[in-house]
């Protein structure tokens, strides 16, 4: 194909590799990812897209990204399209990541929530974009430290992610010595056990109280929201940074609608909200604005 017949360079290979990956392929994948989960990719991400999806091509026995685009662009390829989105989303997490958030939650919200639960009230927390579960389990550990009987009260932590493979890891609840290093030793001894994984390696195993507090569910933040709330606390950290501003604004409005009037929303260290639905109350911590402020 000549430059004249391809003025946009759509047939140009963007990455040198064993599988043809053209600008046209990249644009189709980028468009589908934006439609499905709200994430925008520019061409500087082409090597990352190639590296993460080439594994899927090998599994499926395909010869090119063009063939892959055909599959994920059809209704029959819906499962693979979800696998594509999972492969292209970033899963970086650890126990008690950004510890100031847990300290703020412990001081500003937890005493009232524990009192509410002990009186028979309903307490709901949400870890949105939970990855392999460390954030949700960190919340559960913080709750159990203040209220050891929490798993027997009406206290639940919803933990959601778009990546089913990450959710499977979270449900397994097995973590290495390195992974649990940020957890206080007394907490580890009380709320974790020890067992061997499928490879025979000794791991730390999430105990029954932790498991009973957390429910892991597949969820796309840019899709339907079956949960009704309200939630007293939402952790949605380092998720919205991948969204364009209009997608972020829509997300904040939905978060505000499902957060209790005195609830708090915790974001990642590089994220900010300028939406009128929220007011800044701490370091990347936001509360709902009054209705007259948000009008």
Please explain how this structure is put together.
The chain is of the alpha/beta class and 295 residues long. It has 2 domains: 23-88, Chemotaxis Receptor Methyltransferase Cher, domain 1 (Orthogonal Bundle), CATH 1.10.155.10; 99-294, Vaccinia Virus protein VP39 (Rossmann fold), CATH 3.40.50. Helix content is 41%, strand content 18%. The chain has helices at 23-37, 46-60, 65-72, 78-88, 99-108, 110-118, 134-146, 164-172, 185-191, 208-213, 245-258, 291-294, and strands at residues 123-128, 155-161, 174-175, 192-196, 202-206, 214-218, 231-235, 259-266, 278-282, 285-288. The strands form 2 sheets. It has a 7-stranded mixed β-sheet with strand order 6-2-1-7-8-10-9, with helices on both faces. A 3-stranded antiparallel β-sheet has the order 3-5-4. Strand 7, helix 11 and strand 8 (259-266) form a beta-alpha-beta unit. The longest helix is centred in the N-terminal third of the chain and has 15 residues, at 23-37. The chain is globular. The chain starts with 22 loop residues before the first helix and ends with a helix. The model has no long low-confidence stretch (mean pLDDT 90).
Helix count from the secondary structure assignment: 12
Major β-sheet annotation: 7 strands, mixed
Over the alpha carbons, how many angstroms does the gyration radius reach?
Answer: 22 Å
What is the percentage of strand-forming residues? 15-25%
CATH-assigned fold name of the largest domain:
Rossmann fold
At the first level of CATH, what is the class of the largest domain?
A: Alpha Beta
* Count of spatially separate domains: 2
**Which superfamily, in CATH terms, is the homologous superfamily of the largest domain?**
Vaccinia Virus protein VP39
Q: How many DSSP-defined strands?
A: 10
| Classification by helices and strands | alpha/beta
Order of helices and strands: HHHHHHEHEHEHEEHEEHEEEH
For the record, the CATH architecture of the largest domain stands as 3-Layer(aba) Sandwich
First and last CA, distance: 55 Å
- Residue share in helices? 40-55%
Shape: globular
